[in-house]
Amino acid sequence: MRFSKIALPLFALSGISLVYAGPIAYGLCQTGCNTVAVACYAGAGLTFGTVVAAAAAPAAAIACNVALGTCSATCATVALLAPTP
After folding, report:
1. Which residue positions does the secretion signal occupy (predicted)?
2. CA–CA separation, 14 vs 16, rounded Å?
């Protein structure tokens, strides 16, 4: 017998609710991060996704990438753990 068949009725009777981690919140957060990265690139006169060589990348592109990495890491640590009703 599966655990969920036993646990779900027990949770329902005890008032404990099941909460799933936030994949929807994570996806929305990542979309926000990518939107800001595209705007950052555009502000520097670049097109996001077209700068190929890291060594030849302008300093503005590197700064945008660092900001994107920080934002994405924050999404992974915060939004994935957020409850989704």
Report:
1. 1-21
2. 5
Any idea where the domains of the chain sit in the sequence?
A: 19-84
pLDDT tens digits, one per residue of 32-60 = 999 999 999 999 999 988 877 777 788 99
Helix (H) or strand (E) segment spanning residue 18: none
Bridge partner residues of 84 (DSSP): 20
Could you tell me which residues come within 8 angstroms of residue 32 by beta carbon, excluding any fewer than 6 positions away? 71
What is the rounded distance in angstroms from the CA atom of residue 21 to the CA atom of residue 53?
36
CA distance 10 to 23: 26
Integer-rounded Cα radius of gyration of the chain: 20
